[in-house]
Amino acid sequence: MSVLYLVVLLASIGCMVLLDRRFSLFFWRDARRAGLVVFSGLLFFVLWDLLGIGLGIFYRGETEFMTGVVVAPELPVEELFFLAFLSYLTMVLLTGADALLRARAGRR
Question: In which band, very low, low, confident or very high, does the pLDDT at 49 lie, cut at 50, 70 and 90?
Fold first, then answer.
C-alpha cells in the first residue's frame, strides 16, 4: 500500500491552484461559481464511472502506487481526486486560453 499516486495528484492540484491564483483565472475570479462547476464536473464523472463499473466496463487496476482504499466497489479514492483535478484543469486551461486570446486581440 502506497500513497504515491495520491500525493502526486494533490501536488498537481496544488500547482493548478498556484497558476489559478497567479493569473486569477477561475477560483480567484468567482469562487462560488468555480466551486459549483468543479463539483458538477466531479459529480458527472463519478456517475459516469459508477455506470461503467456497473456495466462491467471499468475496473480497478492493482498497482503498488495506490492506497488500496476504495469508496465503492472498483472505485479507488484516488479516482475522486483525479476527477476533481481533471475538472479543475479543464477550467483553468479554458479560462487561461480565453485570457490569452483576449490579451492578444487587445494588442491589435
Answer: very high
